[in-house]
Amino acid sequence: MGNVVQRQTRGALRFEVCGNMAGLELLSDQGYRLDGRKASELRKVQARMGVFAQADGSAYLEQGNTKALAVVYGPHEVRGLRSRIRHDRAVINCQYSMATFSTAERKRRPHGDRKSTEMSLHLKQTFEAAVMTQLYPRSQIDIYVKILQSDGGNYSVCVNAATLAVIDAGIPMRDYVCACTVGFVDETPLTDLCHAEESGGVSSLALALLPRGGQIALLQMDARLHQDHLESLIEAAMTACKGVSKVLDEVVRQHLQEVSVLSGE
Amino acid sequence: MAAGFKIAEPLEYHRSFLKDNCRPDGRELSEFRTTTLNIGSISTANGSALVKVGNTTVICGIKAELTNPIVEAPGKGYIVPNLDLPPLCSSRFRPGPPGEQAQAASQFIADVIESSAVIQTEDLCIERGKLCWVLYCDMMCVDYDGNVLDACIIALLAALKNTQLPEVTINAESGKPEVNLEKRRSLHIQKHPVGASFCVFDNSILIVDPTAEEESLSTSHLTVVTDEEDRLCVVHKPGGTSLSGEKLQECISRATARQREIQKLVDKVIHSVKTAQ
């Protein structure tokens, strides 16, 4: 009854310890980053859908060392405030939280603090742009995302995991929502930042994209960046998102095949 | 047809199975669900474990921090368990501060840790009266399908066995602690407490390892925690219909058998991690 076991490297902790030392190169002369990737290389994405029995839709996604769980309940009757009922569309309720053991320092307030509330709001806004809420008036869709291990790119990993969970729940969307965080170092855009890069003072931009039409659902940048560089940064982010969408599409098709084999179609 | 009957008359539905001494998911009355265990997958935590008992999934992560020991016990460290039942594990839980069930379960786990003496808290002391380890054991249920207490105890035990603490020395001159991340040692686990939960149907039928539906339809619950020396650590029967002495004895012997199974499982998984490294 016992089981396969994996042991991850202590990579995340190591970077936390030495990340503040001066002279740590985020991009070496040969074009390699701290974890050996090239500037436009994404981290390895592994995902599984339909992992939980209780939820209507669920997904688990790992992007490098960042691990996130997304769970969707709905569409169901609006719970709580009756004033939130919209007569023509579904209300999306998102909650983002991090496990207390997800960061190198134990997180004292995993939810309810400003950062989590801001993230929850961003996720809600992102999915309101993609989910076809007009099909479910007077109802509510709950999206819960939990970060199990944090190594940079939290928002992007959450969006990607939540997309898979919404698809698993069978809720129609306009397109996949794929997100990526990019940073700008030495005149080069770096895609899919890890924690060491994010905390190393890089100007980072988070982008959520609906890949087929190239439409931006959410764009967030809060660092100093010269406006000449913005174009190339967005370009790099869009390419990365399109790469992620290919991987997510593959995961969905794989899952559908498995499910149809199991149900004997 | 069966699905309709199940929703309209859940109690009758379950009774019809119990008449034939089995349950809707095909188990015997005294059979536990398949238990799987995965350890060490969260590298930001000092120790971690993921346990699935049937569909119930609990993740436990242990973070160790340095702190001053409490005044009443200067030579000991302490363990702070906490169970989180977030709205993502089931639609019965609402967002907000921890509800009664989560708080009661956290306290229950704290009692299990204390009464079973799973770790000698003196091991967590670095310098008497000045510095000790505090282990924050955060358990998170991600899929709630009944019997979350058993899953938590197994997850906690596996995560503690997996925990590695770095070496800490006090610098004699400055009095400040120095953490050596290179040298790590495992915790010494003295006892292996394992829980078994039961519930009573219709005042007479005793079933083992209830699912969420069975829990909500039952008339009384019971949890027994035993360790490898056949000692009882905790017996918890929160009200409900009364239970006879013999039934209780049956439960205790079933719990002891379960303890053996789970201890073997945990040891096997820990061993396979060690050999894989």
TrEMBL record, chain A:
**Record keywords, A-Z:** Acetylation, Cytoplasm, Exosome, Nucleus, RNA-binding, rRNA processing
GO CC: one term? nucleolus
Classify the main location. Answer: cytoplasm
The places in or outside the cell where this protein is found are: Cytoplasm; Nucleus, Nucleolus; Nucleus, Nucleoplasm
User: Any one Gene Ontology biological process term?
Assistant: rRNA processing
Q: What GO MF annotations does this protein's record show?
A: RNA binding
Pfam families given for it? RNase_PH (PF01138), RNase_PH_C (PF03725)
Establish whether keyword Nucleus is in the entry. yes
* InterPro entries, per database record: ExoRNase_PH_dom1, ExoRNase_PH_dom2, ExoRNase_PH_dom2_sf, PNPase/RNase_PH_dom_sf, Ribosomal_Su5_D2-typ_SF, RNase_PH
Q: Which domain of life is it from?
A: Eukaryota
- Exoribonuclease phosphorolytic domain location is 41-172, 175-239
Keyword Protease set for record: no
* Similarity annotation: Belongs to the RNase PH family.
> Which PANTHER family does this chain map to?
EXOSOME COMPLEX COMPONENT, EXOSOME COMPLEX COMPONENT RRP41
* Oligomeric form and interacting partners: Component of the RNA exosome core complex (Exo-9), composed of EXOSC1, EXOSC2, EXOSC3, EXOSC4, EXOSC5, EXOSC6, EXOSC7, EXOSC8 and EXOSC9; within the complex interacts with EXOSC2, EXOSC7 and EXOSC9. The catalytically inactive RNA exosome core complex (Exo-9) associates with the catalytic subunit EXOSC10/RRP6. Exo-9 may associate with DIS3 to form the nucleolar exosome complex, or DIS3L to form the cytoplasmic exosome complex.
Query: Protein name, please?
Result: Exosome complex component RRP41
Q: Which organism is it from?
A: Cottoperca gobio
Lineage of origin: Eukaryota, Metazoa, Chordata, Craniata, Vertebrata
Automatic annotation (TrEMBL), chain B:
The UniProt keywords, alphabetically, are: Acetylation, Cytoplasm, Exosome, Nucleus, RNA-binding, rRNA processing
Q: Which Pfam families match?
A: RNase_PH (PF01138), RNase_PH_C (PF03725)
Q: What is this protein called?
A: Exosome complex component RRP43
**Which Gene Ontology BP terms does the record give?**
exonucleolytic trimming to generate mature 3'-end of 5.8S rRNA from tricistronic rRNA transcript (SSU-rRNA, 5.8S rRNA, LSU-rRNA); nuclear mRNA surveillance; nuclear polyadenylation-dependent rRNA catabolic process; rRNA catabolic process; TRAMP-dependent tRNA surveillance pathway; U1 snRNA 3'-end processing; U4 snRNA 3'-end processing; U5 snRNA 3'-end processing
Gene3D superfamilies documented for this protein = GHMP Kinase, N-terminal domain (3.30.230.70)
Gene of this entry: exosc8
- The main location is cytoplasm
* Gene Ontology cellular component list: cytoplasmic exosome (RNase complex); nuclear exosome (RNase complex); nucleolus
The record's listing under PANTHER family reads:
EXOSOME COMPLEX COMPONENT RRP43, EXOSOME COMPLEX EXONUCLEASE RIBOSOMAL RNA PROCESSING PROTEIN
Q: Start and end of every Exoribonuclease phosphorolytic domain?
A: 31-166, 193-256
Regarding protein family, the annotation reads: Belongs to the RNase PH family.
Cellular localization per UniProt: Cytoplasm; Nucleus, Nucleolus
Q: Which InterPro entries match?
A: ExoRNase_PH_dom1, ExoRNase_PH_dom2, ExoRNase_PH_dom2_sf, Exosome_comp_Rrp42_subfam, PNPase/RNase_PH_dom_sf, Ribosomal_Su5_D2-typ_SF, Rrp43
Record lineage: Eukaryota, Metazoa, Chordata, Craniata, Vertebrata
Q: Which organism is it from?
A: Cottoperca gobio (Frogmouth)
One Gene Ontology MF term: mRNA 3'-UTR AU-rich region binding
